Amino acid sequence: MITLRPATPDDIPLLEAWDDEPVVAASDPNDDWGWEQTLATAGLENLVAELDGRPIGFIQITDLVRDESRYWGGPQPGFLAIDIWIGELDLRGQGHGRAMMELAIARCFEDPAIHTILIDPITTNADAITFYRRLGFTFLETRQFGDDLCAVHQLTRQIWQQGPNP
């Protein structure tokens, strides 16, 4: 069973190791997470996904009003953004990413003020885009974030409430 728990400074060596995995690095090639600062930044909920107690991945939920980095621009009430990856290569392609995202999405929409979740895969990451679309995300726009050209997608509460996609 997949569970989510807050990431702590004790997780930094594992997060750094995952971040250096070629598959993870390819999905986010131009970012240095700066884990100590990331874990301390207001507006970011940093979570470690565990499979039966074994850390397997990372999720970050960003509050677009409280986020100090302003990565997504100015404050946007009602919006959250999600970043996700499975760090353990032997566990990819087994449905754990979907389970992680379903938990993260439900967590986001627990707040009735949240109406939209954003994600920003790199435009060349076709596997990630397909993954997000299967979860109900729809293309919003192409946007440049630093050196990365991203395909921003959104999931609205209304679409999410219609039920899971196959």
Uncertain stretches: none
N- to C-terminal separation?
20 Å
What does the radius of gyration come to?
15 Å
Helix content: 25-40%
What is the total number of structural domains?
A: 1
Overall strand count: 7
Share of residues in strands: 25-35%
Taking the sheet with the most strands, its summary is: 7 strands, mixed
Please tell me the overall pLDDT.
Answer: 88
Shape: globular
Structure annotation, total helices = 6
CATH class: Alpha Beta
Task: Say what the CATH topology is.
Answer: Aminopeptidase
The spatial strand order of the largest sheet comes to: 1-2-3-4-5-7-6
Tell me the name of the CATH homologous superfamily: Gcn5-related N-acetyltransferase (GNAT)
CATH architectural arrangement: 3-Layer(aba) Sandwich
Order of helices and strands: EHHHEEEHEHEEH
Structural class estimated from helices and strands: alpha+beta
Which secondary structure elements does this structure contain, and how are they paired or packed?
Layout: E1 2-6, H1 12-20, H2 22-27, H3 35-40, E2 44-51, E3 54-63, E4 79-86, H4 96-109, E5 116-119, H5 126-134, E6 138-145, E7 148-156, H6 157-161
